[in-house]
## 1
Amino acid sequence: MHGHSPFATQNVDYLLACYDNCCTCIDTACLHDFEDHLREKGEVTIATFSGFAFQHPENGQMYCTGRDTNELVLSSILQKGAYLNAYEQFESEAERKSHFSKFKDERVVFDDTFSKGQKFKYLNFNNGQLGIPAFGDFTLAFPLSHFEANNLVFVKFNSLIRKVKGQTQCLYFTENNEAIALPTLTQDLSTLQHFVPLIVLKRKEDLEKGTDIDYNWLVLKPIEGLPRHRDYIEVITWQDVLIQVGVRLRAEKERFQALIDAITTPKTTLGAEIKNITELQSLINRYENDNQLLTELV
Amino acid sequence: MAFTLIAATMTNGYGIVADANGEIYLIKPPFGFHGKEYLPYEQIKPTISQFGFTELNEDFLTWEAVFERLRQIAWQARREVGDTNTTISEEDKKAFFRSIPKGFLIGAVEKIESYLAKGDYYTVLFVGEALLENSNLNENESLQIRVKQAFDEAKQKQEDLLSPFKNFKPDRVNRHFNLQMTV
């Protein structure tokens, strides 16, 4: 069993050396602004598949997801007041496997490799903007200050990402996903102290292209061929992630307004889903009134 | 066991729960099931049969587990009555606008103004009426004024549009039409 944080610390020399190399070919002032921006606005967000609504890309109609009661992640977090991982949420192995879905074996290998693996909560790094639209209609965002620095590790890519699209071999695993390829993983880890160099390294190519950089893309970039932002920086923590003052819930204004259109259009059949949303809203309101949650449209 | 779910309404997930000290609570939906109310058992006892409660006597360790069970009951009930993909009732639509959270209200207000600009007065009146009942809107004076203005303007414009037809008697027309059809 290994500790996650020591691996990230081992990576510091390598990271800083590469970071210095990057800094020579890009605008240092811009890079400093970027660092300042991230340290001020940086957040850690949760994928909140919420049973909310989405607009069909072809016919423009609104549909609601609401895949299953157990998957209304945001409702579940709000009800419990905390973001619980699969080990905390489901007692039975069968339920956990069903939750892990197609990554069930890899997740177990990953979590069992580390001493606090079963306490790991997997999140995404965000630059204070909307978040990852592919992860639900809401973004639940925790400020970096919410976390103890030594309980936080940043991973360059999603920890279970496939090496090649369409294949099952994961990037950070040995052959057939039997164990973690620790040297590969270690190289792509960072602590809170050095997370900016990790991001800069990940986007080295973009930074080298010129000074007119969209900073949002440095943290969150659409993978080519996919309509939504999926190439994010993963964050792993093993501390409690509780709803408390400073936590923000965001939604995209256009999508929210499209939902209003769907609700007011008599032809749309969204019955039970609208009720889910109404209930979700009541739950959000309760947290808002307790001043534990800020809501905003962006 | 810490909590016993004595009974629940299988149609909407109300629950009667006893804690380890024998104190009795009425749990109310929706969703969060945190609408917990302490009540003397003698007062609640007759409601078990009167209000459609079904005895369950299931034990749980935490309040969370109790709430989750009640939530499941409510969801199951909805599914059983085929309430999974039906048309939205007027009341559901209104409930949505009445419960829009504070930070999301600006989106709704801008939307209602765009309906007004498009001349969709009926929708402005419908959404506006429900929004004005949203307690979060009442706390935000500037947004409330914008909704009220949009609502009043839509009302006036719709009245202007309909005024030429104020002597229109649809019943009479239909009767005439029906007579023609039977001839």
## 2
Amino acid sequence: MLTFDGFKAGMRRMAGVALFGVPFGIAFGAAAVEAGMSMAGIVAMSALVYAGAAQFAMLQLWHTPLPLLSIAFVVLAVNARHLIFGAALARLLNALPRRQRLLSAYLLSDANFADMQAARQSGSKDLGILVGGGFVMWLSWNATTALGAFIGGTEKDMARFGIDVAMAAFFVTVIAAPARRVSNLLPMGVAALVSVATLSLLPHGWNIIAGALAGGIAGGVISRDGRER
Amino acid sequence: MAVNADLAPWIAIAVAGAVTFGTLAPVIMARVPETKRVQQFLDSLSTSVIVAIVAGYLARGTLREAAALAAGALAMMLLRMPMLSMAVAMAVAAAWSGFQP
């Protein structure tokens, strides 16, 4: 299900988080100019790629001649967690018509996925919340990266105001609710352990996938004991 | 692999966009039977992926990030207000940076 009411609700829910994302966008725009990207390139990249972490990672490889294969691999690695997001939302996504499914996939990001999780915990099945939230984040990301390309800014400024921890702090608020249920603690613990243990063993970002899968399997295994649910 | 210097940035952006967009997971999941076990796996998966992101972030960070997120988690447990909890976490991080420049 994907409704316009859900879309509006998603926009409202994520407006505050999008505000906290403003410094990230400005920092990316400034860093991209520093890396030698053109203004048009920065705008096009934010609009098309729309994935902050992957875009920052791309800048590390942004030197002539551009290593296209390495860029493709790094972006895949950094964004591979979206496969897990897709799997987690699969039941809802597959019920949508193709055009809405593509729109949901395009606007999917960590923050609106996390917000959709919070919405599902309170019983909602309306992917309009995901799309509306993603749209607000998309608008903000595009406006602020362009702004950053004009004015510049530094990582030091972000640390001074604690802005660098904003996104992780938002994720913590989302996992606080499931953490209250004892049956969730084992999968969550397994996920955290595996994510940290594989951090230095796997390519950038894949520890998240390893942790998520391990946590998912742990949850699936326990469900045999908790069949009354 | 390298190509013409004028065209390369645009190809790189297009490649990155295509890779980001190309998630096949829902298509694959359409072929998996819907049992209670699978449902439980997906429920745990969706929480675990966020836990894994936060755990990896903490492992790469310093005591400052750990203190900030612990304060944020405590605030969320006590007050159940997401925006306020985020503000608490950010305030702790900012204060930490202020005292240890």
